[in-house]
Protein: Aspartate carbamoyltransferase
Amino acid sequence: HRDLLAIGQLQTHEILYLLDEAEQWVALNRQASKHSNALAGLTIINAFFENSTRTLLSFEIAGKRLGADVVNMHAAQSSVKKGETLIDTAMTLNAMRADAIVIRHGSSGAVRLISNKVDCPVLNAGDGQHEHPTQALLDALAIRHALRARGRNEFNGLRVTICGDILHSRVARSNILCLQALGAVVRVCAPPALMPAEIEMMGVEPFHDFDAALDGAEVVMMLRLQNERMDGQFIPSPREYRHLYGLTVERLGRAASDVIVMHPGPMNRGVEIDSNVADLPGTSIITDQVEMGVAIRMACLDVLTRRARGVDGWGEKQAR
Ligand code: CP
Structure:
């Protein structure tokens, strides 16, 4: 693949290849000196049309640790505010001869549209309600590390519960696809108004009762309410939401004894997850997710820019 637009475009062996490639960057990032020259001389543009803390910073750190020149374009300070179209913005970025462009956009499909207009690899950093592929990859890497710490070596049959605003969540969609590809059994839980009508077509088991969804879960992934995508339709009060769908210590007792708790961030503490769960040592891997995010983004940038450096693309290398 030239681009990374969706988990749906990847075969299982390609997902595993990216996870394996990321391990060398996990090791590098844990050293005192974190620098590599793997992408020296390349230019990476991060074009973010929506807010971000983790994804933008980790792509920036990833590019810099690989030795690339990294430039960030924030839509709020760009000529998008003067009415420039997405296509014209894409053609402008292309004319600057970037070697990779990382894009976050509020509209599903916008990243693919841009990828059709530029000559370099495009990485989707989250597009509307569609996909957030590097989030799912970093989550898989974080789960793999946590499983290995528990003496378990694989995802096969792993019982994962994803709870929250499934309807608007690109994180949920990418994670469902990624975890299923790796062999996990995925349950999703949401209030009826926040569950997509076609969810069963994704091969997951839907729940509205969070206690039932937690029963025996080995991984619990909590998502926030995406109020900004709701058009004022369904916004329960934080108190009401916590009562029915908040992850409390008491509720967590229904899950497996060595359960792994995750959240992609940003968290709303005291709403979808209580602080004493989010900060529970050995159970919560929320900060590990952030650490893995840098390594996964290093792996994705490295693998996708191989052709720009005259190195075999990953598909070609594996086909031999
Ligand atoms: N998980 C995630 O995408 O966080 P940001 O919105 O802060 O990038």
Notes: The pocket of phosphoric acid mono(formamide)ester is lined by residues 52-55, 126, 135, 264-266 (CB under 6 Å). The longest helix spans residues 286-304. Residues 218 and 258 are 7 Å apart (CA to CA).
